From TrEMBL:
It comes from Nicotiana sylvestris. Belongs to the glycosyltransferase 31 family. It comes from the Eukaryota. Possesses hydroxyproline O-galactosyltransferase activity. Transfers galactose from UDP-galactose to hydroxyproline residues in the arabinogalactan proteins (AGPs). Is specific for AGPs containing non-contiguous peptidyl hydroxyproline residues. Utilizes UDP-galactose solely as sugar donor. The addition of galactose onto the peptidyl hydroxyproline residues in AGP core proteins represents the first committed step in arabinogalactan polysaccharide addition. AGP glycans play essential roles in both vegetative and reproductive plant growth. The keyword Manganese applies. InterPro entries: ConA-like_dom_sf, Galectin_CRD, Glyco_trans_31. CDD domains: GLECT (cd00070). This is Probable beta-1,3-galactosyltransferase 20. PROSITE patterns: GALECTIN (PS51304).
Amino acid sequence: MLCVLIRFIIRMMKRLKNEASSVRRFKLSYILLGLAAFYLILICVKFPEFLESATALSGDDAAADVALDVEDDGGESSTSGFHNNLSQYALVTPREEENENGALPHKKPRKLHYGRITAAIMKRNNMERNLSVLDRMADEAWTLGSKAWEELDKYEEKGIEMNSILEGKPESCPSWVSTSGAQLAKTDQLMFLPCGLAAGSSITLIGTPHYAHHEYVPQLAKTRAGDALVLVSQFMIELQGLKSVVGEDPPKILHLNPRIRGDWSHRPVIEHNTCYRMQWGTAQRCDGLPSKYDDDMLVDGYLRCEKWMRNDIVDTRESKIFSWFDRFIGRAKKPEVTWPFPFVEGRMFILTIRAGIDGYHINVGGRHVTSFPYRTGFTLEDATGLAIRGDVDIHSVYATSLPTSHPSFSPQRVLDFSEKWKSLPLPQNRIQIFIGVLSATNHFAERMAIRKTWMQASAIKSSDIAVRFFVALNPRKELNAILKKEADYFGDIVIVPFIDRYELVVLKTIAICEYGVQNVTAAYIMKCDDDNFVRIDAVLREIQRVPPRRSLYMGNLNLLHRPLRTGKWAVSFEEWPEDVYPPYANGPGYIISSDIAKHIISQYRNRSLRLFKMEDVSMGMWVEKYNSSAPVQYSHNWKFCQYGCMEDYFTAHYQSPRQMFCLWNNLLKGKAHCCNF
């Protein structure tokens, strides 16, 4: 290559001698300008990297603190990115010495810095080139979690007494709140109900629906020969619960949706529903036809749907004849009053939502319109927010007869610091099942309900089964402080030091697998949520039906489920290119054998474990890969309930603390009956 370059230069010099001096000076000037431009471009491209190196070499500690990687057992640092050994970055390390209370002490995450150049440059390279959206989200959560843990130490060092939080007077909430339309607009149409609702609470809204506007509906373009414009006038009123994790919508305890111009039915309707963890329930639609008068269809004695006038229902000729005959023979006819649809475009309305004993009752203009029964897992005290969306102008909102305290805001009401609720030390011998319970930071009531109910099962008290809660950190440091106090006392919480997000629940699942492999010796590992009630004896019997030493994946299995490509919870082709998901068990509760858990941890450590934001689908994907090399027994049973509870259940989902106590009392009586309040 060098010889070729020399020959080219000699040839150019010979040509220059034969040309006129003026032309030679002209071409030399252009060559020099070109070289200067090339040099400037090179400097501009390389200058940021040079600046990074200079900053790192200048002795700035901030550059050295960029990497969050930790030292593994051999003393060698792992490479950058969030694919580190989870337990080595977690607050509980394998086989640590237990304190006098039998609980594992919490320690700061250890950090091993790269070289000063590597720490800054490698971090940026990963963030800009190699990591996916999920990887970057996880990396950010780890970073914020590390800062939150450091702030927690400073928070405690300020001398703030936890007793003032845990043992002080119950927090007081106002018995009524009100707001104007202008104030509501400043808060993004959200109104805070400090301590939720109680039976007898009511919310009154005064508003005016907008006139209908055109909306484009792509699905109608195929059926209407290109005409996909429809007139729409609708609004939504929602009672929302506490947001559990960042990135996840809060649960919708009541979703009330009047559609003045109708929907696919082309008639005005009022739809009611609930939504929890992105899962919508079965809608209750009122379209002008009265609901049944059966006792099981009534809500506190009210019809679920009242009758209103409909253009498509007219008296037939036969009915008119019978009406004339009734008058002729003198039979008295009960007068019937039929009201129009309660909402009219451009006309003011007064709507009241009242919380009854069995459900919500909706009145408009002083007249009962609909009632919606309470659903399993959704409690009145959880309705801490009122959200209003859609084509409506709200003039004022008034909420009255509100409760004055809330258990989730008052940990002293639910955290029972009694010796009998402390967790037993981890057994050193082999156990049947390790159960990891996913929980959110502020779910003090849910964790306490589990400690007092199914964690008191004989198999757990005899150390045949071990249970631990896996909790990530919260952006609010006062909640993290209470969580740490709770973890230190009860000894049953594993704090995973990242800021909680729905998309990162999969990291908690990996933490459960690693804890079940390294900290205990369990034949099986079960994952469940903190609103899941587990019948320990029934689950044990179901596992014992499986031949020993056989790889197992047990739960409520889904087959040939397809990812949603449109809508709010769409999954892109980049996230999931396949047409269907692999067979997977529903996330609220499933079981895997320890060999599968070891395979998952092994794949995670060598960075070959594929991650997906839906943790139950991820588990199905990992099991499917393991099944390609070692046969796995897939065991399906509907009694691992996905929605609510069924008789003779194995696990019951969406159970509130109140329902858990009821289920436990039923089990003590020898009956596996549900408690659907």
